[in-house]
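Researcher: Batch entry, complex prediction.
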Amino acid sequence: MNVRWLALLPAIMIFAGVIPANRVEPIVLGMPFLFFYVVLCVLLTSVTVAVVYRFDPANKEKRVNNL
Amino acid sequence: MPISSVMIFATILIALILGILARIGKQMNLEQWTIAGRGFGAWFVFLLLAGEIYTTFTFLGASGWAYGTGGASAYILAYGAIAYLLSYFLLPPIWRYAKEHQLISQPDFFNKQFDSKWLGILVAIVGVVAIIPYLQLQMTGLGLIVSVASSGSISQSAAIAIAMMVLAVYVTASGVIGTAWTAVLKDIAILAVVLFIGIALPLHVGGFREMFTKINAENPGFLVIGGHGMGVPWFISTVGLTGLGFYMWPQAFAAIYTARHEKVLRRNAIFLPLYQLILLFVFFVGFAAIIIVPGLKNTNLALLAAVQKVYPGCVIGIIGGAGVLTAIVPGSMLLVASSTLVAENIYRPLVGDVSAERVEAVAKVMVWVIAALAFFFSLHSNAAIVLLLLTGYNFVTQFFPSVLLAVFARNYITKAGAFSGIIAGVALVVYFTMTTQSILWGLNTGFIALVVNMAVVYVISLATRSTNLKSPLGSGVQA
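Model: Structure tokens for the complex:
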């Protein structure tokens, strides 16, 4: 199973998860919950892409250029 | 003249001087330069890139939107994440194709893919049309700063006229898309400013939790998605529209080509979402402004009005100065991009055999024409800055279906399909813009146009697909 499918997770969390997350309470880290939730999704996006990048066979190709 | 005005004009002057000096310098594409990490420390790179995403939209627009619409502004945080997720998969094959065919501009991609100079011209036209509201909002922001800093002694119209002149002169004089140093100055300034007021202003009104509790008590439902007809379906469709359209802007698309290697594009997708988080601080300013300066008619003023109320003139001077740079640097880039599009991708293909000097002359003239157009539109519009950008997005996102299919399913799309889809989508957007309908059936109308676009591409391609299938994209479509 290609690790790239993991990328769907943050997308689903943003598009679908926003429905239950659309609330003010509880206020977390000083922010209304909706905003906290979206911040969480953004962080999750970063982490997810990092994981995908790490395990993506496309990134293990023999390097043509020295990076 | 109040000290704030002096500082604002000084900033404009410095930017202009730097721009003129840059005539000798080379244009630097900061993102690729720094991600490749040529000797810059990691923290410095982070700082530079954090600032790069900042335009008037993020500075005045997002704070004004938070002030005016509350919870709906959360879309601005979310759409970058979607865009970067997508970019991991979409950008590398575009880069490969561009490298193989030595592409320079966004229309080149369509020209080569579909073997059609007219498609390229269409794409260039739509690209320029989209850039105009984006440019307009930079001018609006600059005009507001000049007007506020002069404590109203310069009228908004005059201020926007000044903004237009500054931008056009800056572009014509410097001849490059702003020096790297002006961009660096802007990045550092805006980061410092946003972090400062994003924390100081909420603390000024009693702290974060207190601020939000108070807003929620006085205006229940404001801090969540749902007000002004912008419900959850609107949120989802708008995040979809802008997330998919993020890299469809002509200048963003062309920037893909300049990556050192496709791996760089994938790696960027890891870190760029984090930069979006600085938007949070911009929102905090907007929310604090609800308490500090309630009842503003022009929500774009939220940040400036709040700062002016709380701090002495010199602070508004500094913050306004940062805001000026946030308008000039992206504004000049947009002016160059659009005038180049007209000269290189509309004029040149239409006229055929023409000298490079001629094309360059056309570009220079177009700088003033486009600047004047944007100026004209901004005179008669007090539109929220965010809405202006969304208008631009409505147009550029119409490229997405064609790009997506060209990259991943080249056999399924034909030249006629691409043409029809873009025209159908753009026609709908024009209709919705004329009738000022941004929401229909609870959804973002640009998104509706996008869906229709996709359907048209599919149906027309099906109908016109020849029995001789073209060979797949470039050297294999593994993204």
